[in-house]
């Protein structure tokens, strides 16, 4: 009988391993649809970041040769600043995130991190400096602790219990953990504890905090959290992004109104740029989007009352 079970057990293991791998890919590659192999140049050095300045210089890009998506796009994210990318669906916001993570190379122009062209350095060193907080995170079918420590340090799982707890505290996951009898050893995911969208996001924030990257890429999901959860998460993200260079891709303008610089994109170009106040005074695309969203939100509030 054992002989029969051993292969079955093995099969189960293979299944779990592959499944886990897929969840991992889904999370890390949510920004991307079809990964394309980008290769390190022979002998490429590691990225060295002293001042986490991110600059796009005249970047041209298309997923397909006959359809250009970004047109000579330039912007800078100064060290420690929060720079938002907003604009209509399909404008190219997530594409910028994918290029910064170097899932693709631009066909023209350059992307620099602290003055180094990201296509000249190793991808591993580039990605080690950038934390992604997707706003609808996928968790592994494993323990809460594993989900926070996963991938840190790069290639290992060597975070100490104290480090995990500190990250959980900063991401406001600790109150949840303290309610659970098994604490960080609680199984989450399909067969374990089901976490809400907001809780999953907090776990993703804790994972990013443990990685402690100088550059953050926040990718807001289109699906809305309820407004109280959203406010809580925003407050947490604000703490997390302090002292880090943050690029925030947003659909709801209320979430990025206090960004240092807001870049408004339309059809692969930055058409307006400035603070929330500057852009309202300009009375262009941003002001139009802002007024429309304010009206929609007040209608939703009225409908809910
Ligand atoms: P949204 O607000 O809807 O998320 P976005 O501004 O983030 O939109 P992108 O996802 O950057 O827009 O997409 C920009 C354009 O690139 C779109 O027209 C989209 O159809 C196209 N595009 C995105 N991913 C791919 C891909 N893998 N292959 C081909 N075209 C793609």
UniProtKB/TrEMBL annotation:
It is found in: Cell membrane. Residues 54-292 form the ABC transporter domain. This is ATP-binding cassette domain-containing protein. It comes from Aurantiacibacter arachoides. The chain holds residues 310 to 614 of 614 of the full protein.
């Amino acid at each position: 009988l054992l002989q029969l079970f051993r292969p079955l057990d093995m099969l189960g293991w293979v299944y779990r391993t592959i499944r886990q791998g897929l969840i991992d890919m889904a999370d890390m590659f949510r920004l991307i649809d079809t990964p394309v192999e980008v290769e390190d140049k022979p002998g490429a050095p590691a990225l060295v970041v002293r001042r986490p300045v991110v600059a796009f210089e005249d970047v041209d890009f298309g997923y397909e040769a006959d359809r250009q998506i970004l047109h000579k796009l330039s912007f800078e994210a100064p060290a420690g600043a929060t720079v938002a990318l907003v604009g209509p669906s399909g404008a190219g916001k997530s594409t910028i995130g994918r290029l910064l993570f170097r899932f693709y190379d631009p066909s023209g122009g350059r992307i620099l991190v602290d003055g180094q062209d990201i296509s000249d350095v190793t991808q591993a060193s580039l990605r080690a400096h950038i934390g992604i907080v997707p706003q609808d995170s996928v968790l592994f079918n494993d323990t809460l602790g594993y989900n926070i420590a996963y991938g840190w340090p790069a290639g290992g799982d060597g975070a100490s219990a104290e480090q995990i707890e500190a990250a959980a505290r900063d991401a406001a996951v600790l109150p949840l953990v303290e309610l659970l009898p098994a604490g960080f050893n609680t199984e989450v995911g399909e067969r374990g504890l089901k976490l809400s969208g907001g809780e999953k996001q907090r776990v993703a924030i804790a994972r990013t905090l443990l990685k402690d990257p100088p550059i953050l890429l926040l990718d807001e999901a289109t699906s809305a959290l309820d407004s109280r959860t959203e406010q809580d998460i925003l407050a947490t993200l604000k703490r997390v992004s302090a002292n880090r260079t943050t690029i925030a891709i947003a659909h709801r303008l209320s979430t990025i109104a206090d960004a240092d610089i807001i870049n408004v994109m339309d059809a692969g170009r930055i058409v307006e740029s400035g603070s929330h106040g500057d852009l309202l005074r300009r009375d262009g695309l941003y002001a139009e989007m802002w007024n429309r969203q304010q009206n929609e939100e007040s209608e939703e509030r009225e409908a809910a009352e």
